[in-house]
Structures are given as structure tokens and as C-alpha cells.
Amino acid sequence: MEFTQRLPSEIFISIFKELDTKTLHSLSLVSKGCNTFAMDNHIWNHVALNRWEGKQGMAEICSEPHELWFKKAGTWRKVYSIIEQEARRSELNTDDLVETTWRFKFNSFPIPHVGSPNFHRDGIYTHNGMIEGQLPWTFTKEGQVRVDQFPPLKPFRSTTDWSLKMRNIHVTFVSTDHNCFRKKLYHFNLKLIEELGLDPSHYILHPPKPSFGLSNNSNEENHDDDDGNDQESMENNNENNNEGNENEEMDHIMVLPTNHVFHDDDDDDDNGDNDQNEDNHFVIFLSFQN
Fold first, then answer.
1. What DSSP state is assigned to residue 145?
2. 208: which DSSP letter?
3. Hey, is 203 helix, strand or coil?
4. Cβ neighbours of residue 157 closer than 8 Å, sequence gap 6 or more
5. In a structure prediction context, what are the per-residue pLDDT tens digits for the chain, which is 290 residues long?
6. Among the four 72, 118, 167, 268, which has the fewest Cβ within 10 Å?
């Protein structure tokens, strides 16, 4: 008798829920009984929800019941694999840029957020509260994103919270929400329903809609440096240091309106007087292009 049949299945399910994905994969090759438990939807449901907790773009997915994924053996494991593959994707496409809510900051200034940047599908970039009018944006042949004549932005994904990021030597864009995972699962669900011969109207299959506007996520400030050890971050930091030692040609001047002036309350001025009128302040940001 196989050892998995010597104890109630509930015990093995409880044990397998505590295992990591690599161990589950190894156990699936041991025997038919182990394979059954290692592919069990309830086990992978538990593993997936633990893995997805706190990841950007996954809150809505985690909150849904997903009865559909329990209707076929191995479905939760397949869904887990789809999400993992998407979480490792760093290159961006037009949908990613257009359907993502972005926030923007300067790398060299202690301002957590400036304005509301938006990439439009017609190749137009707008930035309310930062610039007036419109600027063109495009992809470079290397897959980077160029806005007007500014240095191209190198895209990458946070390994901590799965947010999307773009960075050059001057600025960083960070997503506050995106549709990457929802879109993947929407198409997966459509195929699964067709495969099982089910009625789509009985399940949540509304296509993910892009949302614009700033997120109220209280953890936003912690996302700026969560990938300090990422290769992309290190490369850009090195570029930034090297650029500081080279001659630069001024390319753009941006002036922030007074309502975007940043006051650092922790840094007292020489006179110890921080009660200056905000209307008397303005900030000019210079962007340089080699």
C-alpha cells in the first residue's frame, strides 16, 4: 500500500500546504499518490494566495472566490505558473504604458511625487501639474521608452511588490496600479470556460479596465528603494555617478507651480526660520541631455 493511503487525505493536504513549490514539484514525481496531492487545487490555492499577498495588481484577484479554478485538477498550479511568468516580465508594451497608473519623481530631489503622468495610445505624453501641453513618446529599438528628447527610460519590474518601473539618470516612474495580471487571467479564464463547456455568464469575466489617477496606497513611499540591489538599479546608479563627472548640455527646463514646492521640515535654514510664505517660492528643474 502506498504511504499516502495510510493516513487520511486531510493530513497530507495540511502537510503539503506548508511545502515550497520546488518541493511540491519534486514530490509530484515520487508516486501517483504524491502527484495527486502535489497537484491538488486546494494546496496550490493556499500557496498562491500566500505568494500574492501584498503584490501590486493582485489585491482584486486574491479577493475573488475563483470557483472556476477548482473545477479542473491542476488549474491552480497552472494559474500560479502564469502569474510567476508574468511577474518576471520586465519589458513593457503599449498596453502597459497606457493602462498603468504612474507616479513620477526626480532622482536627485527629495520630492516623493510630482504631477500626474499619462502615456496615451496615440503616442502622446501628458503630465498634469508638471508640464503644459503634450510631448511625444515612443519605444526605442532596445525596448526603452523615450519621452520627447529626454534620455530614454529603462523599464524593469520590482522583485519586491511586482510594480512596474522605468528609470533614467534623472527621473523614475513607478506604477501604483496595473492590469498585467488581470489581463493574463482574463484570457486564461475564457479558454478554460470554453474547454470545460461552461456558461461564461456565471463567472466574473469582465475585461480589466485601465484606471488613472493617483493611488492612495500608504506604502508608496517605501517602493522607491525596494529594488536597490536590482541589476537595473545598480546600472542606472552607476550611470548617474558617471554622468555627474561629464560635461552636460542643457536640454529642457521645467518649472513647477508654487503648489508643488516641497518644504523639508526637518532641515532648518541658516536663520532657523521656516515660516516663509509658499507664494514666494518656485522651483526650476533642469533636465540634461548628452
1. E
2. P
3. coil
4. 87, 88, 89, 90, 163, 164, 165
5. 455 555 566 676 677 677 777 877 776 666 676 677 778 898 899 999 999 999 999 999 999 889 999 999 999 999 999 999 999 999 999 999 999 999 999 998 877 778 889 999 999 999 988 888 999 999 999 999 999 999 999 999 999 999 999 999 999 999 999 999 999 999 999 999 999 999 888 776 666 665 443 333 334 444 444 444 444 444 444 444 444 444 333 333 343 333 333 333 333 334 334 343 434 333 444 444 44
6. 268
Half-sphere exposure at residue 142, Cβ-oriented, CA atoms within 13 angstroms: 8
Closest CA to 116 of 134, 103, 107, 133: 103
Q: Where in the chain is the domain with CATH 1.20.1280?
A: 3-88
**Three cell numbers written together for 96:** 502597459
48 by Cβ neighbours in 10 Å (0-12 / 13-18 / 19+) ranks as buried
Distance of alpha carbon 193 from alpha carbon 199, whole angstroms:
7
Dig out the grid coordinates for 248 from the structure. 552636460
Which CA distances in Å does 196 have to 69, 72, 82, 90, 189?
11, 8, 19, 33, 10
Buried b (16+ CB within 10 A) or exposed e, 246-264: eeeeeeeebebeeeeeeee
What is the fold of 3-88?
Monooxygenase (1.20.1280)
Q: Which helix (H) or strand (E) holds 176?
A: strand 171-177
Distance CA 228, CA 160 (A): 11
102: helix, strand or coil: strand
Going by C-alpha positions, the residue among 52, 7, 281, 12 that lies closest to residue 185 is 52
- Angstrom distance (rounded) from CA 99 to CA 45: 28
8 Å CB contact between 99 and 178: yes
